[in-house]
Amino acid sequence: MKFEKIHNKGQAQIFRNKYLEYLTKTHPLVIWSLYLPVIIFLLYYSIARLHFSAGKALLLFGSGIFFWTFFEYIIHRFVFHFVAESPRARKISYVMHGNHHEFPRDSQRLFMPAVPSIILSSLIFLVMKIVSGTFAFAFFPGFLLGYLTYASAHYAIHAWHPPFKWMKPIWRNHHLHHYKDDEKGFGVSSHFWDIIFGTAFNLKAEKEDKEAVQKLMFKKKEVQNILR
User: Fold this and answer.
1) Domain boundaries, position 137
2) Fewer beta carbons within 10 angstroms: which end of the chain, N or C?
3) CA-based max dimension of the chain
4) 40/54 Cα distance (integer angstroms)
């Protein structure tokens, strides 16, 4: 997904049909409101109805969060950055992730839209249920929270400066992925798997361009409009 120009303003038109185009956009609070009740209910169900101990539920929940970080890396590297050859495959690749690389500051497409998100998460839960049985009721909520954390971190990286100094490497890693080399830095919420698989940036060797980074952030007025 190499583009002649990366646009820091505007957004891609993915579909000509205005209704389909509308479904490609979402607000972070919509996704949180969809999945937070599911997380709470499944944890309640695993303890109250399946009689998991609090320790067992917490272990499965934590394992789900950790598994998300691996899933995030694999999907980003091998699915979102799949090298498409045919025109149809390139179109699919662009719809899934290419539009984000061409318009990285499009605030309406920093979370997966609700409809495909619900379909995909339902399929993932079904697979987990088949593989792990009732354990999925405590494991899947952790996986979902991992996704929400990742998506929120992704949103924050494109919207604001890191709120804490220790978060700065996470921000720099993703900026370098977008603006220097999209074959590295596939982890967004964590560098762990990039380090394991040798795709991490050497942040100490990368010169930071503060002026260029400033151009990536949303302006105060933009943020206020988004949060309304």
Assistant:
1) 18-227
2) C
3) 56
4) 14
